[in-house]
Specification:
Strand content: 5-15%
Helix content: 40-55%
Number of domains: 2
Number of helices: 5
Structural class: mainly alpha
Mean pLDDT: 86
Largest sheet: 2 strands, antiparallel
Distance between the termini: 65 Å
Amino acid sequence: MGADAGAPLEQEDVTYCARHPQTETVLRCGRCETPICPRCLVQTPVGARCRDCANVRRLPTLDVSPVYLARGAGAALGAGIGVGVVWGFTLGGIGLGFLSIFVGMGIGWAIGEAVSLATNRKRSTTLAACAIAGVILAYLVRNVVIDVALLPRGDLWGYLAAGIASVYAASRLRY
């Protein structure tokens, strides 16, 4: 038996996380050596880093500035008016029945694509709301073109097409 057989094992120095001072940790950032806990840890291809060194940023696709929001609103306005006029003149008040589902998908695609193109393919909840507003505008313009009330009673297929178009347009812009 050696002299160190009965000696207690040495423990590593325990430090506290820089962001969570109540949390003990033995982890350190691989770049700046800041003590970090598992909640602060960001795993990178070169090892564990703190949030500052990992340089965590939003994806550029999801970063929507007010300029892009204005461009999306303008595209929704223009596409809503244009699609509404085409919808009114081509299909008018014809009850298409089951085909309204496909009409709604086409309207949603057209308005969602217009907003997406105008904003460089950005995606956000606010852009999805702009596209939904564009679909609602298209429905209202269609009703003006076919000379009925803005929100007519008994237009089940028109409401169904507008609802499906809203869901389809928003799904193209949500992240």
